[in-house]
Amino acid sequence: FESILPNPEVLLHGDHTRKVYKATPSSNAGIMRFAVKKATCLGCKAPIPNGGLCPNCEKNRESLFLNRLGEANELESRF
Q: How far apart, in whole angstroms, are the C-alpha atoms of residue 72 and residue 74?
């Protein structure tokens, strides 16, 4: 770079090499104050007050369990 720039040290030092810090929203400030984490149904992803399945997916409990178990077994075999 010496033939192009008279002082190649300029490439390694200066304002263009500084890092800009961007603060992420905390849990109690700004827009994150309105975000609330809620439990969702494992079958249809509908918000539910508690438990793992909504009343509509409760009848498919066995098939949903076997699907999740199959996915976990496949991931275990890959690992």
A: 5
